[in-house]
């Protein structure tokens, strides 16, 4: 009850699209009864969790922050939501995002931008962005109204807002957590992400949602062993090989983030880890390669929104073609439309080889960089975002928009390779905003990855 009240009261950040008050109250009441009769289902029983609004929730609006799905209520729960409910968690509501998870700021939602909680003045027109596209989920956690939140991560959408909002954000290994019911962006890269205030809380949520699901054919079949991290005072990093990929020191990296990265690497070395520079020469191609693959998959994924089967239907019924066109033109924003057009161009018979197939080959090279680096390092330490959270007024300027893809420079490669990555808040910048670092590991290395995250948090 208290938590729901807080969710409703923290409206000024615009973190939630829908607060599922009635359902959450029922779930909370049931949890209380279980607690009284000593039948709590798990450590998440009764715990408030928010879910990004691109995960299907039975009979609760699932909008993807788009006019296209403004009135869409799915008939089923995404596996992640169902598993949280089965663990007794209370799903308090659906969080804001960039339309169809396309973006890195949570500024392109039909419900308006989400505001970062840090240095946020409720009455000011300008504010620091929350990052994105899971900005609503990050703010639901950072504002203290939720224990944890579910985001999605295709190129950085969980880690980027986690970094800007000063919370922990995990992108699990591709296939470890089911995508069933997650509205797709890039099927071969999408994963549900987890945001919470500390690493132990992330682990509790991961333990509840991970593991095989027969409704997602890309879900790993290997049984998932629940993760138990040692207590912080029993942790050692002696002999742990940590790689510092030099190519992540890129053009727009701020001095403050660079210094912090150096400082933590030095500290880890002083405390017994073997820290050394490694090279991943194809890193710089990740963003452009991603944009080709993303646009191609978007062109195909968005084809289902035709104004007939799902979502918005325009009044224009002169012809079926006209109905499709007007529905799509009216209900998608310019970013979605742009990606559909470009994607279809890349997929034309005469272009397919040149763009799509070429991008797949570059993706393979980026994946190979990771395969090779694991011979020298067990984990990699990099920045998550290049700067602290930008001001909204700066972020939405045209020139910065064009550079927007750079937001994902450090996070995107992990999605190409499918490997796990976590963003951990480290300290505050001179301006009093959170700065974070990212740790990456090989496939299914979550226990080791999260142990190091806990060590440095
Ligand atoms: N910023 C990237 C994009 O716009 C990644 C988004 C995401 O991870 N969902 O596609």
Automatic annotation (TrEMBL):
Q: What is this protein called?
A: Glutamyl-tRNA(Gln) amidotransferase subunit A, mitochondrial
Quote the subunit structure annotation.
Answer: Subunit of the heterotrimeric GatCAB amidotransferase (AdT) complex, composed of A, B and C subunits.
Q: What is the purpose of this protein?
A: Allows the formation of correctly charged Gln-tRNA(Gln) through the transamidation of misacylated Glu-tRNA(Gln) in the mitochondria. The reaction takes place in the presence of glutamine and ATP through an activated gamma-phospho-Glu-tRNA(Gln).
Record-linked InterPro entries = Amidase, Amidase_dom, AS_sf, GatA
Q: Which GO MF terms are attached to this record? A: ATP binding; glutaminyl-tRNA synthase (glutamine-hydrolyzing) activity
Q: Which family does the similarity line name?
A: Belongs to the amidase family. GatA subfamily.
**Under which EC number(s) is this enzyme classified?**
6.3.5.7
Q: Which reaction does it catalyse?
A: L-glutamyl-tRNA(Gln) + L-glutamine + ATP + H2O = L-glutaminyl-tRNA(Gln) + L-glutamate + ADP + phosphate + H(+)
List where in the cell it is found.
Mitochondrion
PANTHER family in the record, alphabetically? GLUTAMYL-TRNA(GLN) AMIDOTRANSFERASE SUBUNIT A, MITOCHONDRIAL, TRANSAMIDASE
Active site: residue positions: 52 (charge relay system), 133 (charge relay system), 157 (acyl-ester intermediate)
Q: Which organism is it from?
A: Acanthoscelides obtectus
Cellular component terms per the entry's GO annotation: glutamyl-tRNA(Gln) amidotransferase complex; mitochondrion
- Please state every residue range assigned to the domain named Amidase: 1-450
One biological process term in Gene Ontology: mitochondrial translation
What keywords are assigned to this protein?
Answer: ATP-binding, Ligase, Mitochondrion, Nucleotide-binding, Protein biosynthesis
Task: Work out whether the entry's keyword set contains Acetylation.
Answer: no
């Amino acid at each position: 009850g208290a938590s729901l009240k807080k969710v409703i009261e923290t409206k000024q950040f615009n973190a939630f699209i829908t607060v599922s008050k009635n359902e959450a109250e029922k779930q909370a009441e049931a949890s209380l009864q279980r607690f009284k009769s000593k039948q709590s289902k798990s450590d998440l029983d009764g715990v408030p969790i928010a879910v990004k609004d691109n995960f299907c929730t039975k009979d609760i609006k699932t909008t993807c922050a788009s006019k296209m799905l403004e009135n869409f209520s799915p008939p089923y729960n995404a596996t992640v939501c169902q598993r949280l409910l089965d663990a007794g968690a209370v799903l308090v509501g659906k969080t804001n995002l960039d339309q169809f998870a396309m973006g890195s700021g949570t500024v392109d939602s039909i419900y308006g931008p989400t505001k970062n909680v840090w240095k946020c003045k409720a009455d000011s027109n300008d504010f620091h962005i929350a990052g994105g596209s899971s900005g609503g989920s990050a703010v639901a956690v950072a504002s203290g109204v939720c224990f944890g939140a579910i985001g999605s991560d295709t190129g950085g959408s969980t880690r980027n807002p986690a970094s800007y909002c000063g919370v922990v954000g995990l992108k699990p290994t591709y296939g470890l957590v089911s995508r069933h019911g997650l509205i797709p962006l890039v099927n071969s890269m999408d994963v549900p992400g987890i945001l919470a205030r500390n690493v132990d809380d992330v682990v509790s949520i991961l333990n509840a949602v991970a593991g095989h699901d027969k409704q997602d054919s890309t879900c790993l079949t290997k049984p998932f062993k629940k993760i138990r991290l040692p207590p912080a005072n029993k942790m050692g990093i002696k002999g742990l090989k940590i790689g510092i990929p030099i190519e992540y020191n890129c053009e727009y990296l701020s001095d403050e983030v660079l210094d912090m990265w150096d400082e933590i690497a030095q500290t880890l070395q002083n405390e017994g880890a073997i820290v050394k520079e490694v090279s991943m020469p194809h890193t710089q191609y990740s963003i452009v390669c991603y944009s080709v693959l993303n646009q191609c998959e978007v062109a195909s994924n968005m084809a289902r929104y035709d104004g007939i089967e799902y979502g918005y239907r325009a009044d224009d019924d002169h012809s079926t073609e006209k109905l499709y066109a007007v529905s799509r033109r009216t209900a998608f924003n310019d970013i979605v439309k742009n990606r559909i057009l470009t994607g279809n161009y890349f997929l034309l018979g005469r272009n397919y080889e040149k763009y799509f197939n070429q991008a797949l080959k570059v993706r393979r090279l980026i994946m190979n960089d990771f395969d090779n680096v694991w011979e020298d390092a067990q984990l990699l330490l990099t920045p998550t975002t290049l700067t602290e959270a930008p001001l909204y007024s700066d972020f939405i300027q045209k020139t910065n928009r064009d550079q927007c893809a750079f937001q994902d420079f450090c996070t995107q490669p992990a999605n190409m390779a499918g490997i796990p990555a976590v963003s951990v808040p480290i300290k505050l910048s001179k301006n009093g905003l959170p700065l974070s670092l990212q740790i990456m590991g090989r496939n299914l290395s979550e226990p080791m990855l999260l142990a190091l995250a806990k060590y440095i948090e």
